[in-house]
Amino acid sequence: MKAVDDVTLSIKRGETEAIVGESGCGKTTLGRSVIRLLEPTDGQLLYGGQDITHRREKELIWLRRKAQMIPQDPYSSVNPAFSVFRIIEEPLIIHGFKDPDERREAVYKALENVKLNPPEFFAQKYPHMLSGGQRQRVAVARAMILNPEFILADEPVSMLDASVRISILKLLRSIQGRFRISFLYITHDLATAKHFSDRIGIMYAGKLAEEGAVGDVLREPLHPYTMALMKAIPDPDPANRHSLREALPGEPPNLVDPPSGCHFHPRCPIAKAGLCDVVDPEFRELRPGHWVACHLAQ
Prior knowledge:
Blueprint: E1 16-20, H1 27-34, E2 46-47, E3 50-51, H2 61-66, E4 67-70, H3 84-94, H4 100-113, H5 119-123, H6 132-144, E5 150-154, H7 162-179, E6 182-187, H8 190-196, E7 199-204, E8 207-213, H9 214-219, H10 224-231, H11 244-247, E9 284-287, E10 290-292
Parallel strand pairs: 1-6, 1-7, 4-5, 5-6
Antiparallel strand pairs: 2-3, 7-8, 8-10, 9-10
Helix pairs in contact: 3-4, 3-6, 4-6, 6-7
């Protein structure tokens, strides 16, 4: 069983790559592997040219400062017994910042950066005293406190109201522009990926089905799965609404016993017997910078 199989990504400084797919497709496993919260069983991870694939944890202290994570759940991702100040200060303590005044200044600055003003007011609050959006801003401030170069944002707005989602994504975009941070944005929502990302990878059953510049992929999708996801984007007009279940027959494959050939062929409307159910498609560059894993894409 492979939760993630033969996935290749390259993320530049200051760039956002979105990974989009259904629940269980391997998005979060990929993200956690990228920042070495999980150790890959095969393949290679390079960060700034350094091989981190099988480094021991004590050899990754430098990476823990450079690569941070914004988790999905703004409720369970913070310690309810800690004040906001203590939550944001903790990474500084772990990484040896010994001057209390320096830590206080850094915490207040982080709160200002995520628009929790005045910082002195929010620093003394506890998580239960904050809204979901404010808690997620605290999680962003905690991720920013060590001045990282790379952030894994694992569905950071999926549990928030629609109006709050926009404000959090605008905040992340603003922070990215100011500090040139690279993001790996994990989501199941093509709409937010479209507005937040530079490149996008469509993931299905542990593999990349399609990858390229977000405008190219969403304007001219090459893989049948991407086309189905596009049809399932929410539309204000009820007559134009389609769920993914309506767009595609069946269920995603069980990764314990995946189908032979292309993993998508049992649900694919254009699959050819004797080809798609037998041969695993090559991940090929069909347009400049636009990659797809489909025998029939052209």
